[in-house]
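queue> pop job 88
queue> type: inverse folding (structure -> sequence)
queue> payload:
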């Protein structure tokens, strides 16, 4: 009996340590990526030759991967033509989360990879923050709306015909997912220019929302009831 309890406690704390290390590592990559974007906007879109150039102006220091307990990112850093940049957690540090060597990754095109890890990662993040999937969905709608407005500002007030165009024209890195699915539906009209975005289906019915909610209307903004 006691042995079982000890085993359970041990399993729980190991799971937590594993979850914290992948969360910490992806958080590190996101932090470095933010520093990189700030650097690039100060240097006419150019990325630095080495991550050390971010310190101390754009980043206090290059963080350590919680699993490897050292900076695993600097050695992997590459400035690449089409991709813009690439970095990863170098080494085999997250096999316990089902990742291969040199994962997770982060590039200008795919913010965090591999894509197959994202649903589990999002689930862990939501659990840790105690937030419901609808909170992430609302944030996704806001990000899509921001990308649509940036697109329109550059295209004489016209919104794109499809959300895919946001990606093609690089206003958006990855198409956001709700509950692991590409759930966002987009309707658009011209004269007057208008769009409606919604999370399609009954994804948040369990949390008390009707079907096809939340939604974002370019005139009225966010609806979440
Ligand atoms: Zn790592
Ligand atoms: Zn949703």
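queue> result:
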């Amino acid at each position: 009996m006691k042995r079982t309890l000890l085993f359970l406690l041990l399993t729980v704390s190991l799971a937590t340590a594993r979850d914290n290390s992948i969360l910490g590592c992806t958080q590190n990559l996101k932090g470095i990526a933010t520093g990189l974007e700030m650097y690039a906007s100060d240097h006419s879109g150019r990325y630095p030759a080495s991550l050390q150039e971010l310190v101390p102006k754009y980043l206090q220091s290059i963080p350590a991967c919680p699993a490897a307990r050292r900076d695993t990112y600097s050695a992997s850093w590459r400035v690449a033509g089409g991709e813009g940049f690439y970095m990863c957690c170098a080494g085999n540090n997250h096999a316990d989360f089902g990742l291969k060597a040199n994962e997770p990754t982060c590039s200008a095109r795919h913010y965090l990879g591999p894509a197959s890890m994202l649903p589990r990662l999002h689930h862990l993040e939501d659990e840790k923050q105690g937030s419901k999937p609808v909170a992430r969905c609302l944030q996704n709608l806001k990000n899509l709306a921001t990308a649509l407005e940036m697109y329109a500002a550059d295209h004489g007030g016209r919104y794109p015909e499809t959300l895919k165009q946001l990606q093609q024209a690089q206003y958006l890195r990855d198409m956001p997912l709700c509950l692991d699915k590409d759930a966002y539906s987009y309707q658009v009209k011209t004269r007057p220019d208008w769009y409606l975005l919604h999370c399609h289906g009954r994804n948040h019915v369990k949390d008390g929302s009707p079907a096809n909610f939340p939604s974002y209307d370019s005139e009225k903004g966010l609806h979440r009831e």
